[in-house]
Amino acid sequence: MWTLSATALIAGFLLSAGIALAADKPSNAQIAHIAYTAGEIDIKAAQQALEKSKTEHVRAFANDMLRDHKAVNEKALALVKKLDVTPEDNDTSKALLDQADAKHAELAKLSGAAFDKAYIENEVAYHKTVNTALKDTLIPSASNAELKALLETGLKIFQGHQQHAEHLAAKTQ
To answer: In CATH, what is the architecture of 4-171?
Structure first.
């Protein structure tokens, strides 16, 4: 189950990473990798939900996450190819993957209503964290107008995901 301390840990990490990134001004290549990694993490989470959940509204939400994050990541890949930028792995993207792998393993042990509740709570916390990182760090640090525009579009989509997840979380309490 997603705990408040786990949420605080990830939020704290990203906020501290955001402060460090803001001071260091991440490159467009690093920003692209962080954003792509965040999308891939939610794709994997959605796939897990589709494998484990039998609840219609949870499965519908997971399908939305899968569709939207794949679409944004496809646009991101097309943009980095167009700009001839190679996404650059970095400490933030590595930490995101490590935390996501731990959450995936934790959720794998759950089933039924416990899984559904933990998955949706994780989606709320994850989207809050990613949206904050986009708004406060990645978008302001992007120096390429097309990358910045893609990140802004992603933020609007992911804010909708957060609202949807919050609505579902209220239903599963």
So the answer is: Up-down Bundle (1.20)
